[in-house]
Write a structure and sequence with these properties.
54% helix; 3 strands; alpha+beta; 2 domains; 3-stranded mixed β-sheet
Length: 93
């Protein structure tokens, strides 16, 4: 995996071809992950798979946080009641 600055990418976009995965940084913070593709590769399927992986990771982190905070033990009936209460309050506004 390679790292580059957004300025380097702007000045030399061909730099992305040097590595399979490149992380682009702006002001010392990661802002993008670029993945090289082969000719004929289904780009849309690859993008969908990457978004699905990101969603799965977010769900995994939410489950870990729920376990750590104890909210994973809240009964489903209590969760449903809270949702109904919030929806009713939103309808009033």
């Amino acid at each position: 995996m390679k790292t580059i600055s957004s300025r380097d990418l702007k000045n030399n976009p061909g730099i992305l071809g040097d590595s399979d995965v490149t992380v682009v940084y702006s002001r010392s913070k990661p802002m993008a992950v670029c993945v090289s593709i082969s000719e004929g590769e289904d780009v849309l399927s690859l993008a969908d798979a990457m978004l699905q992986m990101r969603a799965q990771r977010a769900l995994e982190l939410a489950r870990i946080m729920a376990r750590e905070s104890g909210t994973d033990r809240i009964p489903e009936s209590e969760i449903d009641a809270e949702i109904r209460s919030l929806r009713a309050a939103q309808k009033k506004n």
